[in-house]
Structures are given as structure tokens and as C-alpha cells.
Design goal:
It is a single chain. With 139 residues, the protein is an alpha+beta fold. The protein has one domain. The protein is 35% helix and 17% strand. The protein is built from 4 helices and 4 strands. Strands 2-3-1-4 form a 4-stranded antiparallel sheet. Strand 2 and strand 3 form a beta hairpin.
Length: 139
Amino acid sequence: MKVWFGYGSENSTNFVIIGTFKKAGDAQRALDIIKEASLVADAESKAGRLDSTTAAGEMSSALLDFVSRTNMALLRDKDLGDLLFEFHPRVDGDKLVITTEEADVGAFVKAITHFQGRVEIYSAHDYKSKYGRQTHGND
């Protein structure tokens, strides 16, 4: 018998985020932005200036530089913190498909909408999908 003493969001979601773009090139551009933002997040985390609980506040110089270069004005420290968790992005034609087991997806939504993409988010636990980790809940 397994007894749970607490609840955490770790590994409990099976989110699929799909950005659909008018031009396939924009899917790749959004993915490139997410990858670069993830590198900034990793560097800031290693420097001790960012973790997954960082609240919105003053932007670090690295984030400010990234925002200036990419024109991603909506991206904040908290969004970078979301990128510290595991996620799996890929371009599929005019779509950017991201799967994650984390519930905080703001950075992905902001990157997709920055390139005028339409965003769809769902749990692959509840809906059949060719994306996401397949589970018994979506038979």
C-alpha cells in the first residue's frame, strides 16, 4: 500500500503546449528564443541570481540584455525560473510543440505569442494526443 503524505506538482502534469504559426519559420524563431532564454536562465541560476521561486522583481543585467536584443518585453525573472525545469520542444511544420511535466508555462506562452502564434494548452492525461506522455487516462 502506498501512502501519500503530501502533494507536489513534480511529475503530476503532462502538459502539451502547441503554438501554431502563420509561417513555419516563426515556429523555429519562437523555439530559438525559448532555447536562448533557457540558456540565460541556466546561467543566472548557476550564478545564484535565479531559482524556480524567484518572484518578479528587478531584471538582472543578463535578462535585460536578452530582452533588449530579442524585444521580448513581457519576459520577466519569474518566466526564466520556469525554464529551469525539464521541457521538450520541437518544431513540427508550422507548429512549435512543447511537452512538460511542470504547470508553469508562462515563458512558453509569451514566446509563442511574441511571434503571433495561437496557443493551445492541454493535459495529455485527459486528451488523446500524438504529443505528450501517453497515459491510461486518455484511452
